[in-house]
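Appendix B.2, paired examples.
Example (i):
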Amino acid sequence: MWGLTNSGNLIREYIYLNGEPLVQVDAGSPEVLTYLHTDHLATPRYGTNSAGSTVWTWDFGAFGKEVPTGSATVNLRFPGQYFDSETGLHYNWNRYYNPATGRYVSSDLIGLIGGLNTYAYSYSNPLLRHDTSGFYAEVYQPSQNVVKIDLPSFTRPLGRMTQEQVNYYVEEIEERWSGQIGKYFVTTKITKPKPNCPLDKANIIFVHDKPSSQSPRGNAYVTSNLVMHLFNDSTGWTAAHEAGHLMNLKHMFFDHYDSTGRKVRIIEPGYEDSIMGGRRDTGPSERDIEDVLKYNDVRKHDNR
């Protein structure tokens, strides 16, 4: 989807994956990217910039009458709808939808085939259905095995560390926990918590300006209240491994010493190629993603 000026110049386009909006691209030098985060129906609910800051929010409401907030402008609404600023209505391809009334402003062009109430939106049940064409409602069936992991986190550099150094670890975590992982297509984002969010309701990521040898545990770690401590010599792999603990995953290995005093690492069966199995040359595995789904309230789309 894209928008053009009267002279045909591109001003805005949207990038979709499997029917869900991922990125809004505003033309300019440089281009401005707004990364979109959707709900269970693929409706965009908030947008973040390249630094991970929230720049647009559309609060949840059954019929969409809430007014978006933020510094960015995103005109996408329910799936198939685009906000018309001149009328305040949502253009829904074949007719207009009025969010103030929760109804279309004109009767359904296909008559009673779309339902007995020809003005109703999604059978008056927009929590479970959507109408991408303005003709008839359908239950949303997203693509199989698409997983979205959202980690709201406060991030803070300590001492002489900078926010840019913190952002390096954030990017490493997002990159290593995203992509095709086994049969799953995963997107992981570390986002800023909502304003006034209590500290105990979000993760906290500290980056210390000292080496891990000075850590009380001798390395990076995550506390029981989901506070991650990284150090100035922590690697991207270490950050991604510790992020697994923020997702309520545990070590799938244990170390012991043999009769000669040599440390031996024993990896749990099935986790030999898993980042939680402790091997530094591995990324997250399909087994890791299944554990994330098991132990967290994470969105998984599966049509089976």
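Example (ii):
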Amino acid sequence: MATPSTSYNIKIDQFEGPFDLLLFFIERDEIDIYNIPIFRITSEFLAYIQQLESLNIEMASEFILFASTLMRIKAKMLLPRKELDEFGNEIDPRKELIDKILEYKRFKEAAEEMKMMEAERMLQMKRGNMLKELAEIGEIMSEGTEIQSVSLFKLFQSYEKVMKRMQDRLAKPQHVVVKYNYSMEGQRIYSGLGFAGEKIAFERIFQACETRIHAIFNFLALLELVQQKYLSILVGEGRNNFILEWNDDREEEIQLPIPGTEA
């Protein structure tokens, strides 16, 4: 009885494709790009393909196609009659491959440089309480009306990222009966944000959270403080990069409409 085949879609982080693997061989063995030992490189590729048999067929076929190109170059180099250009000079069968490797290397280095620049830009922050393209995150409205803001979706995206990291951190199963003493009264966020005029990263208010429930209460309290205009939200560089700041003109005691559940 035939057993149905199982398809695995596995991504190799180190080698994104055949050119990435070839560049790894070149850098590892300190090979001169302009004098690539086709025989040895081809053997390395064939050995690597054998390790891809249980991986995604589309990914393996990409390496097989590239290995066949190397074998074709290898066969040309074994021919007694060499190809000549229009000037009578011998054509190196490896030239086209060398040009592609150099081009790939340039693009890879440029991508890494742009990635570093992006990381540096994300550490910067624009002045002002809001970017021009974002509407106000909330306004004081009648009871039962939700905060309406085009930027609320982005705030929730950032919140989901924090919750995912917390889920990974708390992934280890624990069988404990817990009584939650969290509330919506805002003291936890208020003490974590500091004084009026100070700024704090959105994700920082979740660093001390013990559980997902704790994080949810903090997030709900944050939304309430924003709606009552105790807080302003600054948008820094990069996606979902939010900064929180207390408003100077709201110094009276915070009154949240939802009563606490603390014992």
